[in-house]
Each structure stands twice: as structure tokens, then as C-alpha cells.
User: Fold these one by one.
Assistant:
Number 1:
Amino acid sequence: MEDRAREREWRSAGLSWAGGVPGLRWEAAGGGGGPVSPLSYGVGAGGLVAYGRGIGFRVVGERRCVGVRGNPCPLRAVVAGRATQAQCGECARLDRSRSVAADTMADDPRPYAVYLAWFGPGMVKVGITREDRGSARLLEQGVVAFSWLGRGPLMAARRCEELLRSGLGVPDRISYAKKRAVRAALPGAAERAAEVRELHARAVGLAGWPEALGVVGCEVVDHAGVFGLEGLAGAVGVVREMVSGGCVAGRVVAVAGPDVHMDVGRGEGVVVVDSRLLAGWGLEKGDAGDGVTVPVKGVEGEVGVQEGLF
């Protein structure tokens, strides 16, 4: 009977940007994908994603490992509440064994694309993604504006990535804490695009560009409207971890990458929920007035962050 009940249990699998709109993914405890709960009202005029949907949930049970690439964890291992990766050590090792980031897929014959990603003034990185994924990887990272730089075989793309990091002096990653700190005070679209175009010109002018990688002309794509960043209020806090019995409820005002910005009402302002912290938990529907009863920390780099709200 316990095994049957477990098969009917649904757990959070984190956030999806399928189709260019955000939603919370679900999976059965016994394995297999499930439905997606929308976090917006869909795409409106001009390609803008319409936010304002009210959501509320209560955390139940223990946080369990989400397994590897659709395969459930055989141990159903318990995962720490503060971990942004909802995998046990063994599943994480298996996942990384076929990872582009870990350079374990040098034989991958599929074409890859190199991109230049902008998160805020002076906050730029370069990266690679499979060409058939399109801009999905950029949405998942919360990239505000970007341009493609080149396309070609995986190892040529990897060499180009290293060349650009060195030649442009940009990091290989930017923390989500830094991205959140500037999201509500970004310069206008024209200024964003100008910085991307200037860096694109510098990038394609570097010596040592791999011959196998075709250069792509600069065409800036801006995600501010997709994420709902225009007029976004600064966050007063970020959820630090989920705990069993804790509640999160409010109105979704923006979603950027894995971060869900929620107006929790009662004059308490906007709180950011990193959806990676939801993965592996059982969640049940909560009431709109539940507010936030999980641990919350300040937003790194924000001016005037209020303490002790929750």
C-alpha cells in the first residue's frame, strides 16, 4: 500500500521555460514526467509575457533526490533543503558523466552555438549551448540580453569560449545573487543593446578564432519583456531554503531564469523564490493569505534591504 501511495505522489521538478513561458514542472515520485503549472497568463501583445497570477503552496514531507535525466533515484535519497541541486551525490556524478560543462562529450556530433550574455552593466559572460535548443539555455540562466557569436562543432565552440573569456576578460559564470541585485535597476533597452554590440565587435575581432566555427552577425535579443522586468520593484528578500510545513504565497510579478519574483502582499514587498530550491519537495496547494513562512535572507548588493520581515 505504501508503494502504491508513493507512485501517486507528485513532487516539484523545478521550473521550465518550454515555449518561452515559465511554469513549474511536476514528476511522479516513482519516476516519469508530469504536468506543468503556469506561472504567467501566457504571451501577450508584442511578445510580452503577462504576469500577475496568484500562487500559493505548502511544503510537505522530505526533500528527495530527483534522479538523473528522467530516471528516478534508486535510493530516494534525502537532499538538503538549501541545496540548489536536488540530487544526491551518486546521481549528481552520473549526471555529470555526460555533461558538456564537464567536457565529457567531446564526441558529440551535434552543432553548438556560442553566445554573449548580458545580465547588467559590466556583467557579461560567454557560453555555449546546443544549437537545437535555441534560446532555452539563455532563458534558464536569466540572461537579460544576448547575441549569438558563432556556430559549429562542439570542440571548436569550446575553444572559442575559452578564447573569448581570455580575450574579453569575462568570467565563466555570474552568481544568481549578483543577477538579482541589479534586476530592478537595469538601464534601458538601447543601452543594453549598445553594450552587447560593442562586446560582439570586440569578440569577433579577436585573433585565434577557430576555423571550424562560423561567425554569426550581431543581433541583440532582449528578454526584459519575457521576464517582466520593466517597472519591477526591488526585492526585499530571497528565500534561503524550503522547510517541511513552510508556506509561500503571493502574486507572481516576474520570472527570470529560475527566480520567481513574488509580491507577498500585506505591504511586505517582493520576495524572490529560487525555483531550484523547490525541486524534490512535495508541494500542496496553499491559501493566498498564507504569506511566506520559510526562511528568508537579504538580497546581496541591494541598498536598504529590510531585515526581520518574515
Number 2:
Amino acid sequence: MKVFNSISSYVSQKQSIVTIGTFDGVHIGHQEIIEKIIEDAQNSDYESLILTFFPHPRMVLAHELGVKLLNTINEKIELLEKIGLSNLIIHPFDEIFSQLSAEEFVAKILVEKLKIKKIILGHDHRFGKDRSASIDDLIIFGKKYNFEVEQISAQKIDQVAISSTKIRTALLEGNIVLANQYLGYQYSFSGKVIKGKQLGRTIGFPTANIQIDEAYKLIPKNGVYIVKSSIDEKIHFGMMNIGNRPTVDGKNQTIEVYFFDFDKDIYYTSISVTILDRIRDEKKFDSLEDLKKQIEKDKQSVITYIKQP
């Protein structure tokens, strides 16, 4: 897959079949659209192309600096490459770009720059200045500028339309199973292992403290989770605590993972943690001994889970 850092850097002699959006999460609804543009491009010898944006438009237009996203840029690139996309443009979104009228966007970007032959979009896509134009407007522009427009209906699970917003809500409520179902893969994050206060060692559960560099990456609700990581090409299961460690009067949120049957020094290395399920809420215990007893129970819950087919 070729990755371009702006619209102006994209060059191809072929016409393209395009879709546009932030694609946060690259969930199963997104995947249906992406697989369709790839299939159509392969059948017609065109380029398959996604135009996406960073920063997220809400960060720029609504000045929502606290926006939390399901994917980092690198995660999104990896997911799209796995699906089989040929070209990805990650265009810097700014105030100037947001002022393009709908027709300017179509004529100058889609037609002139991207050589669009066909565009495939979701059911609720809007574009142009102030998001003023709809799919109906795009169909009119398609007739004027000679490209085809295809609309994909909302993908549904249990009659609930999937959206990135609903997945974020599920994660913030601790419903990792539902989030993973909507995503079509297991939610994960990557970070560097840093030194903490090493209190886990004192009760027999040494943990890897994970520091995530991307402040915009969404972290699920505080609590205890079942996780796995690939370290040195081997899968290690474990349990993760996200929270403020109230038993020891912690003040800041930490992410700590205890891996089973693992004793290597991985300080200052980067690892990816995949979240499988949630065990319980974070809780304040009366003593470290009570905390240790609960962690032993949690460990048994994880062992039972990973033994399941």
C-alpha cells in the first residue's frame, strides 16, 4: 500500500475508485465500503484510494482538543493495508481546507487531483464547507463531472447501525466484547514499558507499566481486563488494570499489565496489548493483602477464560 501525506503528493496515471472519511476504528461498516472499492478497482484496472484526514476535523473545526480516537495513524495504516487497499492519502486537515465549497472540493480535489472514476460512500456522508452537501448533491456533481456515485447502507448488528461513536461509547462503558464485535477485530493499543513504583512485585504480581505516547488514543473504562501480547514472537496472556490504584492512594491513571509465566526485562521496549474481555471494575481494598487475594481470583478468571475453545 502506498501512503501519501497530502493530496498534492498523490500521483497516478490511472483513474481511481475512491472513498472518503476519517474511518476511525476501521470497523466492519467501514470494511464493507473499503472491500467494495478494492474489488471494483481490481475488476476495472483502476486505483483503489482512500482520502482521510488528520487531525480529526472536530479537533480543528470545533477545537475539541480532548477528542479521543479508536486508532492512531499507524494503527489505521496497518488495518487498511491488511484489507488490501492500494493507496491511502492522509491529508492535513486545517481551516483553509474546511472552507472549500462542495463543488470546489469535487472539481479541484476529486476530479483534478484524484482522477475519480467512481466514489463509494456510507449512508450518512456529508462534505464541503460546513458539511453542507449530501450524497444527493454528490450524485448531481457526478453527472456533471462524469463519475459514478454508489451509496452503501448502514451495516447492522442486532439491528443497531454500527458507528465509531457507538464503539467509543462501548469502550468507555467497559463493554469490550461489544466494541470488539462492532470493530470486527480485538481492540488494542501500543506503548512503551516504563518503570513504575514496582508495588506489584511486593505482592507477587510484577507488572509492566505502559505509557501511550498518543494523547488522543482512547483508553477503555477503568477496571481489570483480560489481555494478550506478542513478545519475542510468542503470545503471552495476562491481566491488565487501568485506573488510579485507589488502594495505595494513587492520583494518576496508570495502565499495568501482569503477564503469566513471564519474567524478562522489557523496560523501555514498545509492546502492543490486545484487550479480550473485562473482569471487573477497579476497587479500593482495605489492605495490600486483600488486594493480593482479589488479584489471585482475577488470575483464575483469566486462566479459565483462556482455556476455553
Number 3:
Amino acid sequence: MITSHPPATSASPRPVRKAVVPAAGLGTRFLPATKATPKEMLPVVDKPAIQYVVEEAAAAGLDDVLMVTGRHKRAIEDHFDHALELEQALAAKGDTVRLDAVRDPARLADIHHIRQGDPLGLGHAVLCARAHVGDQPFAVLLGDDLIDPRESLLSRMLDVRERYAGSVVALMEVDAAQIHLYGCAAVEAAGEDGVVRVTDLVEKPSREEAPSRYAVIGRYVLDPAVFGVLERTRPGRGGEIQLTDALRELAAAGTVHAVVFDGARYDTGDKSDYLRSVVRMACARPDLGPGFRSWLREFVAALEDGPEAGAARADGRERRRAA
């Protein structure tokens, strides 16, 4: 049960302009595809997952983005840089549509890169951003956690930060059987619909130990005070420095709020969620959606005859229409 508690107030919290995108993970859940390709670069229709994340930050007004990467992640840096030879070739052909698509990633924001030398956890990755962020509040967007572009979660979190100060996390209610996969929050009412105060956090608790079914998902707006806490945070679950553990200390001081999110979110490092994200994004595209939705309806209707028969029947109809 969520109990009421008076909201915190702040005289004039500083505006958030910077975003940090941790993208140093090994992507082991998606092997062998991620053996040589960063998991964040797996395509969702025709853009890598991480581009949607940077577009989300830019749409919320965050024009300074720091990516925390690791070894074998050079493809991420290249994607957000200019590709002069490719741009020149497309310009020579007069292919302005593809030329804009190639140039867009480098124009989204002022993008910086730093490497996390050792894979010591999300908390350590955030701590790597300290010199770049300084004493300013900042957002953290996980590079493989995709929020549907039609949602406004990050903007809502920035609004909450402006009104309450402190730090803000995103929560999503999940099935009790899945709570062990996430950081889990104990919460109380903040006097506002969809906003709660976080009173405790536990990293990947068992179903029996979980204080709620509210899972922390990959969006944070953090007060710079988190850096001092992370510096003294000892390795926790998995032998890693957990951001959840640092936020737990801040929550105990009453300075962490949360936005409860019930929209479309995908973990693109998970095979099933990745497939769902591709289907949902393709269906929403005006250039692809009508034809793809038609094919998808036929495919699903034909599944009663078995997956292979359904695919063959839908593909046959598609070929006849094209002819």
C-alpha cells in the first residue's frame, strides 16, 4: 500500500542539459550476434537501438550526450560521427533521403565518448562520467533499454526533477515472477498521480524479499550528489558497483522520487523483447506499417496450420500482390 507523505520542495533546481548513456556491456544474452557487433548497434527496423535512445534524449532537450563505452564498441563512435565518403557518394547521386538519414545521428546532439576501462557495473559506468558532468544534474539512459518514441517518459521525469529536486527514477510494475531481474523499489505516495517517493531500493531481490512489484527501468535523472555516494559504494550483487545501492542511500534521505510508467518499453538485449520492438516500430512506420500489418495479420491467421505453413501462405500472398 502507498501511504501519503508531504512532497519535498526546492527553491530553484538547476536545469538538466546533459545525458549519460552507459553502453559498455558485453551483450552476452544476444550471442553470437554480439560477438563482433555491440548489442546497442543491433538494428530496430533501420536504425540501431542506441540511436532511438539518443533521439529520446535530444527530444527532451538534452543536447550534451556522453556515451560510456568499452572495448570493441568502436562501431558506436563511428555511427555518431560523419561518414564523409558515404555522404559524398549519396550527395553525388542526389539521394537526399538516405543522405539525411546518414547525417542525422551526428546532428542529434553534442556527443562525447569515454571508455569504462573495467566492467565494474552500472554504478561504476556512471561514476566514469563525473569529470564530464561536473556538479550538474544529469540524465542516464541505458543504451539497450528502449522506450517507444511516442512516449514522453523522460520529459515527465525532468518535470518531476524540476519540482522536487533530488533524483528521479522510472518504475514499471512487473509480474512478481520477474522482479528478481530488476532493482526493486519500496515507495510511498507523493501527492501526485503517477509520481511516488522512493523509500528503499533492493537490487534483484528474490520474489519473497521484494518490497513491491515496482521495477527500476533504464531511465534516471540524477542529482550530482550521487557521485559522492558512488565513490564509497562497495561492490554489491554480482561483484559490481550497483547504481541501485547508491540510490538506496539517497532514498533514505528522502531525495529520490519516481515516475511510474505504464507505456511501451523494450529490453533490446533480450531476444523476445527485441523482436517485439522491431514489430511494434515497423507497424508504426507510415512507410512500412500498412503493408507490414497486412502481412502480419495474414501470418497470424495462418498460424493454426503451423508456423512454416503460415509464413509460406503470407509470403505467397505478398508475392502475388507485388506481381
